[in-house]
Amino acid sequence: MFGERIKRARQAAGLSQQALAQRVELSAMAISKFENDAITPTSTNLIRLAKALNTRVEFFLRPTRVALTHIEYRKQSSLRQRDLARIEADLLEQAERFFELLSFFPERPIPSFSVPDGLPARVDSLDDLENFALKVREAWHLGTQAIPDLTEVLESQGLFVFSTPIDEKSRFDGLTATINGAPIIALAQHPPGDRQRFTMAHELGHLLLDGRLAEGVDLEKACDRFAGALLVPASTVRAALGRARRRIEPYELLPLKQEHGLSMMSWVFRAHDVGVIPTATKDILFKLFRKQGWHLQEPGLALAREPHRLFERLVFRALAEDLISMGKAAELMQISTSALRSSLALKGLSFEEQNEGVDQ
Fold first, then answer.
1. How many CB atoms within 10 Å of residue 254?
2. Residue ranges covered by each domain of the chain
3. CA 139, CA 274: separation in Å to the nearest integer?
4. Cα–Cα distance for residue pair 211/205, rounded to 1 Å
5. Contact 199, 151 (CB under 8 A)
6. Positive/negative CA dihedral, 276, 278, 281, 282
7. Mean of pLDDT values over 119-131
8. Which of 28, 26, 64, 65 is nearest to 47 (CA)?
9. Which of 32, 55, 188, 316 is most buried by a 10 A CB count?
10. What is the spatial distance between Cα 61 and Cα 46, in angstroms, rounded to a whole number?
11. SS3 of residue 164 by DSSP
12. Could you say which DSSP state residue 308 is in?
């Protein structure tokens, strides 16, 4: 009963059986037997394991089961097996809490994701991605201006967006997968907001372009082109930079990055994609960025990452509608009850105190 969950929590924490055994002052053999369900941990050992694995005892008792399938990594070739196991274990844990939360609602509180109607059935070239991205914007009523919060857009369409902590050296950016039949996008927690947004759009491309690319069109390049076109349409690029340029001052791109949430280097590629600058200019700017070290860290303040608000919002809704208790809400959010009460505070009063006497 407990074995699979102990193993998953250990993998999510990036620990070997020996490392976990040292933390809980048991033998590696005991951890192995726990994970294989050869022996059942005592309540004392469960408490120790929860503390060592930075989780709650309730995790080992949770009834909800989910399955992670159709996993597509953006850079799987550069990931170690240990990193892969850690990412997948963490995503399963997050998804279990999300699906358990949804189970408390009498009717599903969010839509199920579906591919927008009216998208071109076939993409014959990378240039076709410009129109394809516009069709997605049109279906989701996004216009052609900057998308202030891409995470909120995707979540409003029924996509599950998760972040997972992983070492920057792992080179993990993102993945798409299916959990219990629902598509998800997962991202690393460490990149800045512009990279986060591009990765989200790239992974969305994987979901939407499936089965549409003509033979010979590279999938990763297509998803990159789609991501850029979704975040900054061709008409917006031309309005910002002009229709034809031989030279671009890099610092022209800094305010555009801040406004549209797209990196300065990605703006260079977008300018080239839509014919504003020739290949020679793009190559010169690319070399300049590498010489200045801007391919690692661009000038100016890093863009803040977009938060994932949907899960927390649904927890508060379920709590307000008396679908879950304060203790269950805290468990789902993986915080203490006192911390939850603090986050519910409004002008120094808790939710219950705010509503005291309302019905009297």
1. 16
2. 1-61, 310-354
3. 22
4. 11
5. no
6. positive
7. 97
8. 26
9. 188
10. 10
11. strand
12. -
Token couple for 107: 């009717």
Enter the tokens of residue 102.
């949804």
- pLDDT top residue among 130 and 91: 130
> Would you state the structure tokens that stand for residue 192, as one six-digit string?
């800045």
**Single-letter amino acid code for the residue at 278:** P
Which token pair is 140? Answer: 């989701």
Tokens found for residue 67: 């399955």
Taking 70 as the threshold, does the pLDDT of residue 356 lie above it?
Answer: no
> 85-99, 124-138, 161-175, 185-199 — which one is most confidently predicted on average?
124-138
Residue 170 pLDDT more than 70?
A: no
**171 exposure class (CB count in 10 Å sphere: 0-12, 13-18, 19+):** middle
**1-61 is a CATH 1.10.260.40 domain:** yes
Tokens of 10: 């250990």
Residues in CB range of 357: below 8 A, 6 or more apart = none
